[in-house]
Amino acid sequence: MISALINRGSDTKEADVIFSETPLIIAAELNPNPEIIDRLIYHGSDVNYKDKTARAAPQQAIRFKNNGVVRIMKMNTK
Predict the structure, then answer these.
(1) How many whole angstroms separate alpha carbon 76 and alpha carbon 7?
(2) Are 51 and 19 contacting, i.e. CB atoms less than 8 angstroms apart?
(3) Which three-class secondary structure state does DSSP give residue 50?
(4) DSSP state of 65
(5) Rounded to the nearest 5 degrees, what angle is found at the Cα of 34, between the Cα atoms of 31 and 35?
(6) Which residues face 50 on adjacent strands?
(7) Distance (Å, whole) CA 5 – CA 9
(8) Is residue 16 very low, low, confident or very high in pLDDT (cuts 50, 70, 90)?
(9) Which of 52, 60, 70, 77 yields a CA-CA distance of 20 to 30 A from 34?
(10) Are 77 and 48 in contact (CB under 8 A)?
């Protein structure tokens, strides 16, 4: 599904207008699959971007105990 959205031009860096969350932040919160996180990062998602509450994707992955996702984030954090 992620590949199909990206291939059709979805912007992996675009944040929502309410909380300023990117697809990567939302995936870090709700998705335990590191492969999805890896794909979003590969296609330009910024691991260090912070939403309106000053939380970045790695913080959200830790908060939601997505350990596999945390490992991928650590490898891609500047």
Answers:
(1) 22
(2) yes
(3) strand
(4) T
(5) 105
(6) 56
(7) 7
(8) confident
(9) 52
(10) yes
Say if residue 55's pLDDT is above 80: yes
Rounded Cα gap, residues 68 and 17, in angstroms? 28
The per-type count for the chain, helices as H runs and strands as E runs, is 5, 0
- Phi-psi category of residue 44: left, alpha or beta, with phi > 0 → left and psi -120 to 50 → alpha: left
Do residues 69 and 59 touch, judged by C-beta distance below 8 A? Answer: no
In angstroms, how far is CA 16 from the centroid of its own chain? 13
The residue to which tokens 């992996």 are assigned: 12
Measured CA to CA, the distance from residue 28 to residue 8 in angstroms comes to 22
Amino acid letter, residue 36? I
Instruction: Say how many C-beta atoms besides its own lie within 10 A of residue 59's C-beta.
Output: 18
The whole-number average pLDDT for the span 15-31 is: 89
